[in-house]
UniProtKB/TrEMBL annotation:
It is an enzyme of class 1 (oxidoreductase). The keyword Nucleotide-binding applies. GO terms for biological process: cellular response to oxidative stress; heme catabolic process. It catalyses: 2 reduced [2Fe-2S]-[ferredoxin] + NADP(+) + H(+) = 2 oxidized [2Fe-2S]-[ferredoxin] + NADPH. The keyword tRNA-binding does not apply. Belongs to the ferredoxin--NADP reductase type 1 family. Residues 4-110 form the FAD-binding FR-type domain. It comes from the Bacteria. CDD domains: FNR1. This is ferredoxin--NADP(+) reductase. It holds the Pfam family NAD_binding_1. InterPro entries: FAD-bd_FR_type (IPR017927), FNR_bac (IPR033892), FNR_nucleotide-bd (IPR039261), FNR_type-1 (IPR051930), OxRdtase_FAD/NAD-bd (IPR001433), Riboflavin_synthase-like_b-brl (IPR017938). The lineage of its organism: Bacteria, Pseudomonadati, Pseudomonadota, Betaproteobacteria, Burkholderiales.
Length: 265
């Protein structure tokens, strides 16, 4: 291997959430690869006609896995005409996938001061970064309450739903839920399919008309709530504008903010 900026890893498991559209990959992890929950890695593949050559096509994917896990896990949507995702979706256990040695990104819990509530708002595969945070015990220790809102089109796209709903059963997280039974509020929202207990509406619409606050049973107060946004550009633009009008802003010049944003597209 001529380029020391990356390592060659092996796919160990492939999980299909929606055939031809959504999948998760698990792969081996280089012992030297360290990251913070919420960061992303650049994954690489060789050119289509040279499968055994050095990787030349790279894409960014947030880690789903927590920093302490032995494996790396990634969640992806398949872009049919894309150069990378259809090939990644075709990988099988034993196949190679390349990972740059350096992680990237600043959508991490340490962006905020400890305490108060953390609202994690995601559309589609923007959920990825939040899963890493939710699997990491220090996130639960850092905030009094966590709300996860996941906006999709159809219910079948609510990947990881069973895991999220059963986080309280994990031995490493159970103590936090025992102390605070309402520690997590998970709100799945579908725009094209009615779900029990949630409106069939866009996430940003619920944010704009106040229904999100009612559903989460918490006032959108910039003094006590920190918000992360991760998803498609349209959702981010609308949500940022709405939140800015409510007093939310990213940190600057060493002053901790109450809003962090990452474009997941």
């Amino acid at each position: 291997m001529t380029d020391s900026k990356y390592t060659r890893q092996t796919v160990t498991d492939v999980r299909t959430w929606v055939p031809g559209k959504l999948l998760s990959l698990r792969l081996t992890r280089d012992p030297g690869f360290e990251f913070l929950p919420g960061q992303f890695a650049r994954l690489g593949l060789p050119a289509q006609d040279t499968p055994d050559a050095e990787p030349t096509i790279w894409r960014a994917y947030s880690m789903v896995s927590a920093p302490a896990e032995d494996a790396l896990e990634f969640y992806s949507i398949v872009v049919p005409q894309g150069e990378f995702s259809p090939r990644m979706a075709a990988l099988q256990p034993g196949d190679a996938l390349y990972v740059e040695k350096k992680p990237f990104g600043f959508l991490t819990p340490d962006r905020f001061e400890p305490g108060g509530s953390l609202w994690l708002l995601a559309s589609g595969t923007g959920l990825s970064a939040y899963l890493s945070m939710l699997r990491e015990p220090s996130t639960w220790q850092r905030f009094d309450r966590i709300a996860l809102v996941h906006g999709v089109r159809h219910a079948e796209e609510l990947a990881y739903r069973e895991e999220i709903e059963n986080l309280y059963r994990r031995p490493d997280l159970a103590p936090y839920f025992a102390q605070h039974p309402g520690k997590l509020r998970y709100l799945p929202v579908a725009t094209r399919q009615a779900l029990p207990g949630t409106p069939q509406e866009r996430l940003t619409t619920l944010l704009a008309d106040g229904r999100l606050e009612s559903l989460l049973d918490e006032k959108l107060d910039p003094a006590s709530v920190k918000i992360m946004l991760c998803g498609n550009p349209a959702m981010l633009a609308d949500a940022r504008k709405l939140l800015s009008e409510r007093g939310f802003a990213p940190g600057r010049r060493g002053i901790p903010g109450n809003l962090a944003v990452e474009n997941y597209w």
